[in-house]
Amino acid sequence: MSDSQVRTVVGLEVHVQLLTATKLFCGCPTTFGKPPNSQTCPVCCGMPGVLPVLNRRAFELGLKAALAVNGDIARFTKWDRKHYFYPDLPKNYQISQYDLPFCVGGDIRIPLEGGGEKAVRLVRIHLEEDAGKNTHSDTGGDSLVDLNRAGTPLLEIVTEPDMSSPDEAGAFLETVRTMMRDLDISDCEMQEGSLRCDANINVHVETDGKVFKTPIVEVKNLNSIKMVERAIAHEAQRQYEQWKKDGKVLGQVPKQTRGWDDAKGQTRIQREKEEVADYRYFPEPDLVPVVVEDAWIDAVRKEVGESSSERAARYQEAYGLSKYSAETLVAKGKAGVQYFEALRELGVEPKAAANWILNDLYAHAVGRIKAVDDLPTPPARLAALIGMVKENKLNLNDAREKVMPKMIASGEAADVIAKRLGLEVVVDTGAIDGVVDEVIRDMAAAAADYRAGKEKALGSLVGQVMKRSKGKFPPALVNEALMRKLKG
Amino acid sequence: MLITKTASELRRLIASGEVSAVEVATAFLDHAERFDEKVSAFLRLDRKKVLGQAQAVDGKRSRGEALGMLAGVPVGIKDILCESGETTTCASKILEHYKPPYDAHVIARLKSEDAILFGRLNMDEFAMGSSTENSAYKRTRNPWNLACVPGGSSGGSAAAVAARMVPLALGTDTGGSIRQPAGCTGIVGLKPTYGRVSRYGLIAFASSLDQIGPMTHEVDDAALLLQAISGHDRRDSTSAPLDVPNFIDAAKKADGKLRIGVPKEYFGEGLRPNVEAPVREAIKVFEKAGATVKEVSLPYSSVSLAVYYLVATAEASSNLARYDGTHYGFSAKDGANLEDLVSRSRGEGFGAEVKRRILLGAFALSAGYRDAYYVRALQVRRLIKNDYDRVFQEVDVLLGPTAPTAAFCIGEKCEDPMAMYLTDVYTVGANLAGLPGVSIPCGFTSNEMPVGLQIQAAAFREELVLQAAAFYQRETDWHRRLPRLVEETGVRA
Question: In degrees to the nearest 10, what's the CA dihedral of A275, A278, A282, A285?
Fold first, then answer.
């Protein structure tokens, strides 16, 4: 995108499946991957005469999310029916929340690429039931309906259009995922559909002092964070080019819904809404409104425990971590925080612990980190490695670049690896003194320069000693010995 | 004769061993199988199944096991209440062969009280109607005059009880569907307070209005059946978590010395003189017993019918959305695609009145009209409830006619939906406000057609309704009269 100023504007609707044992309005299990229609009962199949009963645990998980994002919790909230005909929705209406969601406002802070952070404001969070799944035959045969998922509790999180790049949308989703996992609200497995996302996208083009806003497009079926990022990048570019072609702006064309085709890397039109779909919302008469008392919120708050920002502040205050380290560590999630606490208990100095976790441990981590065990090496192993560096038994660089990868790969202890690779630092001061004497003799000119007050000359002497020691002498001891001998 | 005995008397006879449950069941079966050829109250009546249940009760008694409060008493079931494995059609083609996989709460209650589930009773399709003419299967006739309707929508239940084919029946009442047919057939029909009886397993017409209730001859029996089915059920979030009073004792109290309100709006235009006269006479019976009677006003009752037809149809359009031919029930053949399959299944599966109400309700909820119709109706519904709340500060019960006319002729109002809807003008208020109400027989027109007296009370005050109704039945004997056609078969009270 060239000539004029082009800004991408993104708002997200995120659906998060809750980690309840049972469905939102019946007692069926929510287990994923069971044989079709084996996790169903008359209620979630929408049989005539059945009635929904609220799963209070699902509501509590919603309250946890509301507290975590500092949203306003509605003290009176109700349920509404949203109507549309589709076979994966057996009642042909979805029980959702229309005009009185249980949580309004709040924000989620996301880290920015170039450092710093940004608050993405939330419009609302509400609870609703999931639909089942249709499987369509490729050969034109009968479609199949599996209602195992029907009635699974979903949180819908709707943001303001506060994200201005694919990266920010990705960061938002990563932050949401960490938050939901840490609070045991959801496991957010995108490939199992427990985190799903629709993106509302347009671009603002500023040219000749005027701003043109392209028509907003809703892109659906985004099943991974990478997909969300790719879809936004593609869609913003497409809209910009479309605008260059026809100059159409927001309000001049009907709202479009597009689907993302990941294989082709493009969005495809799904439907053009002449007007907003008529869902004929009305209050669900089979359920009573939910009244949220202080005591309930307090109990959930206890379960949530220390908030992310409280914890980050405490780490700065109590352990002297930098704001960046403290916030990044906390933002990485519960596993990293627990790892940090474990290192501290093993006597590792807090700043060193944070640095090792953020700079090294996560760099080696692969896949999803749910618990301490998902991090590449146990805290005791890393604590031993850090201890060797601290005690000058190993160079920092060797520790990070040579020992750590081996330790992760083989599961051996740091000292065993260091010994085998011959990286153990020699702390024999006699040996150091011998090499220092040699170098002062061989590099007499540099030694004289230093004695004459040219402090910089020391660097080349140190370098030579380290070279001759093959890096095995601790630099601090080499420095100390050189200065002692040159000044003495 | 066994078939003219009260339910409580039958239960006593069976429990004491004076008669067997099989003898009782056989007596009702023999009469029903013959007489229903005239009346067509039953959609299904399975002799073997009935006798099987009766034998089980006799077995229990002979083993000395404790017997339930309805042991051996036949209860007819409106075909809107789900029973596991039993065809339940709602008198609709769309559920023609539908067998629910579970028992409604009330069915489970009846089973655990050892009642005999005695056949499935006809009704207006999905309980939408006031004459039972909207059944997809058959037209039920009024035992007092076979040319007349039995009222509706619980017309099958009303006709079966009136003709002594069953001593007790369950009906459902969304806008008067228990009380109005009870009035048309000269029996007792009680709609409990919304929330008193669990709706779990009642196939929904309008969820915020539907209630299940007893249809009987005697108020005592209504109290007995209500006692058996009332109480909190956690599967129905709208069922009240309240203790259930002793309705049987309340009926025994039979004290007419109450503060009585007579809503002036119930005696205006449209009320036939041949209905008004017996109702006015009935009020005098209470006055004689020392009741204080005063005229009261329910100003918003003039719009209650309009509010009712918006709220009820809106909810119905949603509740009936699930019948789409893809999951269960009737499915149209050769649907070209999904949309075609759904619209053809619904087009062929639903009757005209059901379609009319779905369209009305969908319209009332649609974007652009919702505020003017549905939301406005909810606001006025609140005002209607306020009217009642105010009046019940001053009086214990309200007395008035159940319907503006006695039972009308078959076909008379079929082509005129508005005339049919007006039948419910005095009954919809109790549904909109969630109140209990009963219709009891209070006399006859010159054509020998029964007239109903409606007694309403404040929410959860069924005891007052029962007490007043039982008092009236102690003072009168309208409820003991038999339709001539029934007498002609040799049945004697």
Answer: -160
Residue A399 carries which DSSP code? I
Option in A49, A87, A287 nearest B237 (CB) = A287
B29's enclosing H/E stretch is helix B21-39
- On whether residue B493 sits in a domain, the answer given is no
DSSP-assigned states of every residue in A254-296: PEEEEEEETTTTEEEEEEEESS------EE-TTSPPEE--HHH
> Domains (ranges, CATH) in chain A?
5-286 (no CATH), 304-420 (no CATH), 429-487 (1.10.10.410)
Domain assignment of residue B20, given as a range? 2-302+380-488
Residue A272: predicted pLDDT: 66
Write out the DSSP string of A302-366: HHH-S-HHHHHHHHHHHH---HHHHHHHHHT-HHHHHHHHHHHHTT--HHHHHHIIIIIIHHH--
Give domain status of residue B176, yes or no.
yes
| pLDDT-derived band at B320, boundaries 50, 70, 90 | very high
pLDDT of residue A273: 57
What is the Cα A319 distance to its own chain's centre? Answer: 24
Q: Is B78 a catalytic residue?
A: yes
A302 vs A63: CA distance, rounded Å: 12
CA distance B1 to B29: 14
The predicted-structure confidence for A209-262, as pLDDT tens digits, reads as follows: 899 999 999 998 788 899 999 999 999 999 999 999 999 999 888 888 999 988
DSSP notation for B203-271: PPSSTTT-EEEEEESSHHHHHHHHHHHBS--TT-TTS---PPP-HHHHHHH-----EEEEEGGGGSTT-
Q: Which of B177, B301, B317, B439 is catalytic?
A: B177
Q: In 10 A of CB A295, how many CB atoms?
A: 8
- Any catalytic annotation for residue B264? no
Identify which of B315, B324, B342 has the shortest CB distance to residue A285: B315
Give pLDDT tens digits for A180-217: 988 999 989 888 889 999 999 999 999 888 999 999 99
Judge contact between A350 and A321, C-beta under 8 A. Answer: yes
Q: Is residue B364 part of a domain?
A: no
**Residue B349 resides in a domain:** no
Tell if the CB–CB gap between A278 and B367 is shorter than 8 Å.
yes
Residue B138, Cα to own-chain centre: how many angstroms?
18
pLDDT tens-digit series, residues B363-383: 999 988 999 999 999 999 999
Residues of A in contact with B317 (CB under 8 A): 280
In total, the C-beta contacts within 8 angstroms joining chain A to chain B are: 101
For residue A1, what pLDDT is reported?
46
For the segment B65-76, what is each residue's pLDDT rounded down to a tens digit? 999 999 999 999
Nearest to A311 by CA among A287, A289, A290, A341: A341
Residue whose structure tokens are 């999803």? A368
Percent helix, strand, coil in chain A, to 5, is 40, 20, 40
pLDDT band at B174 (very low <50, low <70, confident <90, very high): very high
> What total of structural domains would you count in chain B?
1
Whether residues A83 and B318 touch (CB distance < 8 A) is answered with yes
- ipTM value > 0.90: yes
Interface test with B, best of A24, A51, A53 (most B CBs within 10 A): A51
CATH for B469: 3.90.1300.10
Kindly give, in sequence order, each residue whose CB lies less than 8 Å from that of residue A157, ignoring residues fewer than 6 positions away. A12, A13, A14, A15, A16, A65, A122, A125, A176
DSSP string, B60-119: HHHTT----TTTT-EEEEETTB-BTTB---TT-GGGTT---SS--HHHHHHHHTT-EEEE
Name residues of chain A where pLDDT drops below 70.
1-3, 272-276, 426, 488
CB-closest option in A47, A53, A278 to B101 = A47
Q: What is the mean pLDDT of residues B458-475?
A: 98
